[in-house]
Amino acid sequence: MRVQKLALLAIAVAAGLSLTACQGDNGASADTNGSSSAQSSDSPSSNSQGSGDNSASTGKGTATAQSDTGNGASAAGSNSKACQTSQLAFSSSGGMAEGTLIINLKNTGSATCTLKGFPGADLKSKDGTISATRSKLTPPRVSVKPGEETRFTLHYPSNNSGGSGVTFTSLVVTPPNETHSHTLPVSINVPASDSTGPAITVDPVGTGK
Question: Where does 85-202 sit in CATH, by number?
Answer without folding.
Answer: 2.60.40
